Amino acid sequence: MPHAIIELPAFAFTGCGAAGRYRHTMFVEFLGIPRERAGISEMELDAETLGQVLGELSARCPGLSELITSDGLHPSLAANLNGAVFVKSLDTRLGGDDRLLILSADAGG
Amino acid sequence: MTSGHAERVPISDDVLRQYVGGSGLGARLLLGSDLDSCVGPAARKNQDLTPDPLSPEAPLIFAFSALVGSPLTTSAKFAVVSRSPLTGRFNDSLASSGFAIAGKQAGCDAIVIVGRAPVLSVLVIDNGNVRLEPADDVAGESCPVTEETLRARLGHDFRIASIGPAGERAVLYATISHDGRHAGRGGSGAVLGSKNIKAIAVRGTQRVEWAHPRELTELSRDLSKRSFGPATAKYRELGTAANLLTFNRFGTLPTRNFQQGTFEEAPNLSPEQLRTEHSRTRASCVACTIGCEHIYSLGNGGVRIEYENLFALGSLCGVSDQAAVLRASQRCDELGIDTISAGGTIAFAMECVERGLLDAPWLTFGSGDAVLKAIDLIGRREGIGALLAEGSRRAAESIGQGSIAFAPQVKGMEIPGYEPRGLQTMALGFAVGARGADHNRSGAYDVDFSDKVDRRNATLDSVRHAIDTEDRAALMDSLILCKFLRRVLEDFYGESAAMLRAVTGWDVTADELYETAKRIVATKRQVNLLAGWTPAEDTLPDRFFNSPLPNDPEASLSREKLQELVAEYHRQRGW
Question: Which helix (H) or strand (E) holds B304?
Answer without folding.
Answer: strand B301-304
